[in-house]
Amino acid sequence: MSVAVLVRASAAILSRPAASPFAPATSAAQTRTRRTPRTRRNSPTTNAHDYARFSHSEAAHAKRDCAACHVVASFSKPDITDFPDHPSCVECHRQQFFRGARPAICADCHTTVSPRGAARFPFPRADETPEFADQFPHANHVKTTSLLQFKKVIGEKSNIQATCLYCHKVNTAKLTLPASPPSPTTDARASATARPAAQATAGPAYVAPAGTFMTTPTSHATCFQCHWQKGVADHEQEPYATQCASCHRLTSTPRVAAASAPQGNAAARTSVAPPAQPQLNISLSVLTSLPRRNPFPSRYVPKFVHELDAHKKRVNDEGKEVAITCLTCHAAARKVTTLEALRSKESRAGLPTCSSSACHTATTGSAQLTLSVYRELRERSKDPRFDCALCHTPPLSVASDVPCSHYVAVFASATKEKKGTKGIEQLTPPRCADEMKKVTQ
User: Fold this and answer.
1) What distance in Å separates the CA atoms of residue 378 and residue 400, rounded to the nearest whole number?
2) Residue ranges of the domains in the chain?
């Protein structure tokens, strides 16, 4: 080694500060440069999945056929009555199934969040807003061409009226109307929707006599009599049992965890709507059973009794007695293709269908006035608090404003029967002038 190199090395050593005799020894590893610890970046919680609340709208779920999870057992057991078994979930969610002692995903179906919890919620869960709406096309079932299929099931002598009665039968039970009856726009499984503006005060409960209501199918069994499988005689009318999208339309949006809450916190869950909903691939799938219905059907006129002789026949304009069929009042069934449309205001069985023979719109005669809307309109003009109890129950029967359709129906009926109209014209409030002009022109 050269003398110059030795001199420079010695100079470098001598230039270092002297170490304190009290300083702890420093190992070679400690003299290495220490790296700044990395800060773990958490993904935005707004995009985190809330595995404690299942949503059919999730993109990954929407791509799967419903039959991958829900399978109809047989023709004799047509409804899905329980949640899918674990293999349907574990195929994609194995990581969530084995995460900790209380996996959040267990809360979808089980009452106890635990791998060993066996008890399940009733299916479908009544505490969750439904994600599907039934879009039964009444119009397709009251056509003359539909009789060809119905005759295979209910007999060669069946007619259009028989097709209505095949699904809707007389309810022979007495039902008690709640103090605040649900609006016809209220879905049986929804927690809250629009109600008539006048329904602000609850009244006493009303017991509807047997025969007031008609039943509604609550099982696929009724549908599968015609819509079962291709190749099965008399039961191969499309859509088949595996074509769920024909009747069940997805309406909800994906549910994700709340932005300010940790994943799985049930108290802080919220639903966030995405920019667009994914398209469901359920052309060959089997879905859940029909929603459970409110035992007391929603209706604006709860006192109308279907099973009444006076409601089975009427006298037409030619003086002949003719049958009153379902379509006489429910004429909208000839056009509507969804249940939502059938529940709309435009599709209701309106008062004019009850005034076709002046049964409930008579302006004279003591006996006729007993069942006449005109009598109630006259009493309401004297006392704003008068209870219109002929058809309605509180709070609708004591609403401040009577619908203009009532005045119009009485006027049109009186004109048709060639009776005097002065009385109803005097009762009609100014707010109904435009409606009245439509029938006077």
Assistant:
1) 14
2) 350-440
